[in-house]
Amino acid sequence: MNTGPQFVEIDWRGRRVSIEHQWIAPERSLAPLIVFLHEGLGSLSMWRDFPQRLCEAAHCRGLVYSRPGYGRSTPRAVEEAWGLDFMHRQAHEVLPALLQALDVDTQAHPPWLFGHSDGGSITLLYAAHFPDRIAGAIVLAPHILVEDLSVASIEKARIAYLETDLRQRLARHHDDPDSAFWGWNGIWLHPPFKQWSIEAEIRTITCPLLAVQGLDDQYGTLEQIRGIARRVPQTELLELADCGHSPHRDQTDPLIAAVTAFITQQSAGDKT
């Protein structure tokens, strides 16, 4: 069974921040833990039932949370802009603090990380920085550099937020949709961010890694995951047809099957 959404406080950037989170199948106390990291406009609720379905298929526990500024977590302050290192801060500061606050012993029982889009990039940064505190990683449509395609699509999202019902739709999932949208949109369209890249940093990743992308992804080309594979030799790639930026929505069943097989195979290898 799943718990309902809960809240825990962490110290971050000089203030107390409340983090919305939910446990999936916590009764499987000896099963691997998968931590889900959402996309740039995502939240706990925007995953819908995908984490539960994956955990059921893979016989895992799950932890889903909303990053600061998203969902029901503490919103971004009105005057606060994400910095060029915002994903590094999430990987190196927020996620470790959250896991510690929730008594997840990442040294004795390293979790799996499952990240989508910005959450995929944060997953890669965590894996590179804490190689002994992660069992493995699955990344969907991650970013390792900024492409023109990404910027163009994010500019379209800005117009949609200002001119369509996108704000109202996001308000179903975020207490403060302006916090979520402008934090994400502002940094991605900030001209210096065009030079952002984690291509060099990910070379230190040693854990098992599955990188997934749709062939019709409007926010990135296949160079994103193929670039990962060139730098991280143990990477397995999954390129999905008829799939956009959200493989967990566009190709749910094939993705669950592939991830379940990957985790099962890697977990079996750990025991031999």
From TrEMBL:
GO terms for cellular component: membrane. Residues 34-257 form the AB hydrolase-1 domain. One of its GO terms (molecular function) is hydrolase activity. It comes from the Bacteria. Pfam families: Abhydrolase_6. Keywords: Hydrolase. This is Alpha/beta hydrolase fold. It comes from Leptothrix cholodnii (strain ATCC 51168 / LMG 8142 / SP-6) (Leptothrix discophora (strain SP-6)).
